[in-house]
Amino acid sequence: QVQLVESGGGLVQPGGSLRLSCAASGSISSFYAMHWYRQAPRKQRELVAAMFSGGNTNYSDSVKGRFTISRDNAKNTVYLQMNNLKPEDTATYYCKVWPTRTIGYWGQGTQVTVSS
Fold this sequence. Notes:
The chain is an all-beta fold. The protein has no helices and eleven strands. The chain has strands spanning 4-7, 10-12, 18-24, 33-39, 46-52, 57-59, 67-72, 77-82, 91-98, 105-106, 110-114.
């Protein structure tokens, strides 16, 4: 069992930046993958960023060039740096870690609101 604590959400103006953190209860150094999802009201949860054990990353087209996923194994933490935020980025953001290809654990979510 892996427990995750997310933080870093909040209210930001359009064009601003936030960095989300997802702290795991144990080592993430050998994990298969780490993901960030988001879910806006009345919309399905969508995958926005992924990082795999080899260091490869993928991003949804809607955030490519603006968001960056990273990890700090020493701190057992996954990050999502979000720049040039837009109102359409408003959502609850969730991290999900995959210790293996078939077992994943969700964080509790953190709210991001982009508004002037």
